[in-house]
Amino acid sequence: MTSKFNRYFQGLHGAVRPVALGAVCVCLAGTALSVLPAVAQDALPPGLAAQMDAEPPADDLVAQDDSALPPAMDAMERAPGLALPEDAGLAPVEGGMDMDLAEKSPEDIEAEIREDAFEAAITGLLPMRPEEIRELLKRYDQTLEAVQTPLQPYPEPEVVVQTVALDPGVRPSEIKVAVGHVTTLNFVDVTGAPWPIEDVSWAGDFEILKPGEGGWVLRVTPMQEFAYGNLSVKLLELKTPITFVMNTRRDTVHYRMDARIPEYGPYAKPPIIDGGITIAAGNAAQASILDGIIPDSAEKLVVSGVDGRTTAYRFKGNVYVRTPLTMLSPGWSGSVSSADGMNVYTIEDAPVLLLSDKGRMVRAHLSEKDDSDEQ
């Protein structure tokens, strides 16, 4: 503590010392200035010193004063540009702001102030008018549409049923996919029952969602505009693996593809009448009619006694009946089903069909189509 006080007083002494020396110098300088004129006057010759001591005449002082001052100006004169016209008076104007405020009540003045404040707040918070805001949003929407709309037109969606080829030497079925679209691949057997998937493998830039245990649906999404690859699927209890070609297209895309296996699967529905499995890859008649695509040369027959879901066609000596119902009679030579429960039966010419609608037997009558039916 003592050392701190010593350092403090030493610093104070060092600061005060220059100040004191400066004050002494100022006093000495003042004394020298007061003594210097007298000393200088003693050093002058006697004649010159007497002239300096004599007072100058009064006229000379006036003349000196007049020569030292600027020429006098008239009190009313002003510098150029500063003069105001004579009619520029500052008298209050009648009916001015004071008169307007005097005529208004305090309530009116407060209302005007509030209105001005409200308008200022609206202008500050919402500087644009409603029509300008709508025009801005319209321009933004047009820009967003231009950015997000692809240069190519949207692909045409398709829902197809394809019979998968199991024979060697046959080109695999093609799955048409498109960027921004999901293709659902559904596996069914010849009866339309689902066929579970055991294992899946693929090559190419695709995202494929595998089903859970016992599932039979795959979802395929391409990750590139021109992605190309293949897909290999191992079905439960089927020795032959199923292969597909995955091709990214811009004109068409399969939204759903039912891959029909020409075999009885583990969940196959037992047929009431076993007419044998005749569906195979390349059997275009049954496959196209099941898909709802009727051959050009097929003749449509008139079906009565059932609803419009049942249709019949004569093609190359056979009759193809497309119906969601189960056929009981007559016996058929071939049949195929889709995942949605639609069936196609191949029969010979028969005027009456016996069908089962959820256990209830119904009769369907087939007849030739004439011109009156078309009208």
Quick gist of this model?
The chain is α+β, with helices and mostly antiparallel strands.
What does this structure look like?
This protein is of the alpha+beta class. It is built from eight helices and 17 strands. It is 31% helix and 28% strand. Strands 13-16-17-10-11-12-15-14 form an eight-stranded antiparallel beta sheet, with helices on one face. It has helices spanning 2-43, 46-53, 58-68, 97-103, 106-125, 130-148, 284-290, 371-374; strands at 156-163, 173-177, 183-188, 197-203, 206-209, 217-222, 228-235, 242-248, 252-260, 299-304, 311-315, 318-323, 326-329, 334-337, 343-347, 352-357, 360-367. Strand 7 (228-235) and strand 8 form a beta hairpin. Among the domains are: 156-260, Sandwich (Immunoglobulin-like), CATH 2.60.40; 284-369, no CATH class.
Features:
375 residues, alpha+beta, Immunoglobulin-like, eight-stranded antiparallel beta sheet, five-stranded mixed beta sheet, 8 helices, 28% strand, elongated, T4BSS_DotH_IcmK, signal, IcmK (DotH) protein
Mean pLDDT: 77
Helix content estimate:
25-40%
What is the CATH level 1 assignment of one domain? Mainly Beta
Low-pLDDT parts are 23-29
Strand-residue proportion = 25-35%
By DSSP (H or I, 4+ residues per run), the number of helices equals 8
Query: Any idea what the CATH architecture of one domain is?
Result: Sandwich
Indicate the CATH topology of one domain. Answer: Immunoglobulin-like
Bulk shape: elongated
Following the backbone from N to C, one meets helices and strands in this order, namely HHHHHHEEEEEEEEEHEEEEEEEEH
State the total count of DSSP E strands. Answer: 17
Radius of gyration: 56 Å
- Separation of termini? 124 Å
Across the major sheet, the strand order is 13-16-17-10-11-12-15-14
Structural class comes to alpha+beta
Task: Tell me about the largest β-sheet.
Answer: 8 strands, antiparallel
